From TrEMBL:
Mg(2+) binds at residues 16, 111. Residues 12-193 form the UmuC domain. Monomer. The gene is dinB. It catalyses: DNA(n) + a 2'-deoxyribonucleoside 5'-triphosphate = DNA(n+1) + diphosphate. Keywords: Cytoplasm, DNA damage, DNA repair, DNA replication, DNA-binding, DNA-directed DNA polymerase, Magnesium, Metal-binding, Mutator protein, Nucleotidyltransferase, Transferase. This is DNA polymerase IV. Residues 238-257 are annotated as: Disordered. Binds 2 magnesium ions per subunit.
Amino acid sequence: MTDSINPTPRKIIHLDMDAFYASVEQRDFPELRGKPLVVGGDPSGRGVVAAASYEVRPFGVRSAMSCYEARKRCPEAIFVRPRFEVYRAVSAQIRSIMLSLTPLVEPLSLDEAYLDVTGLSIHKGSATLMANWLRAQILEQTGLTASAGVSFNKMLAKIASDLNKPNGTAVITPADAEAFISTLPIERFHGIGKATAKRLHAMGIRNGADLKGVTSAVLVNEFGKRGQFYHDIAHGRDERPVKSKRQHKSVGSETTFHDNISDTATLLEQIYLQNADAFHQMQNKQLIAYTITLKIKYADFTQITRSHTLATAFTSAESAHYWLDRLFVDIPRDLPIRLVGVTYSSLALATETLSQLDLFNS
């Protein structure tokens, strides 16, 4: 199995913080510890859930759910507003810990990242020991728990990180991969959403073994270029490298929903949340922006973007809501949506702009 999947296996860690936003709130406010906590919205039912603590999840409360529904499912839930500036600061702490191990760190969001530790000799060269060291350091320095998945490619590492949550490590070795993939339900494959899973079920495909038995030609015919990806992951192949963070000419934030969403109000609330996060990032970097872009990914993984550029810079996160509303109205709504994102570009340093204004006014 090792030779057929990867002749020289890489060592990839996927690190995922446990209920990140909610855990930060419970860390900072002891009275919230052990309580069913919802980050986002308010008790009246307005807004959507940005994060749910482990205490509220048994009630069926999850991210992207309306707060009205969350309140119905758990009347005792406590609602707090997100503090993105705090989450970003903690995320930076965690990033520093990861970078102290390897420069090959690819952040996916504030609370998760891939690390490529191939060839490192520290911790006896064991990726499992490295993952456990990372989790221990994060707990010691931030007071928060993380879960880790260790494998030889990104897909399996990400799946593994969810196996022993919260506060655990799971390993999928090349020797174990074939048996693991064969019994894995289609819904558990990273990159296969509910709509795709439904189509695969209609084809008689319910687990990895079923998927592996279908030719790439059939899958490509049914799903386009995504079909080749499904064929590869069924065979344990994922050659995507871990890409370390590069200097970007834009600042943005996006989120993928647990379940695809069609409701307009819920989608707009999520867009506003990502907008608030992106604008905070921009402020922290002392930047201003003239262009805003709305990104939408549909249930079938197709995606579109819509942008608008102003003559003057955006002055606040709220000032962008009008344009985000207009951009959102312009997008097709034939399919449910699995991801929304907001990006600011056409950036300039706020200090430079102020200096120029001072010069003109002097």
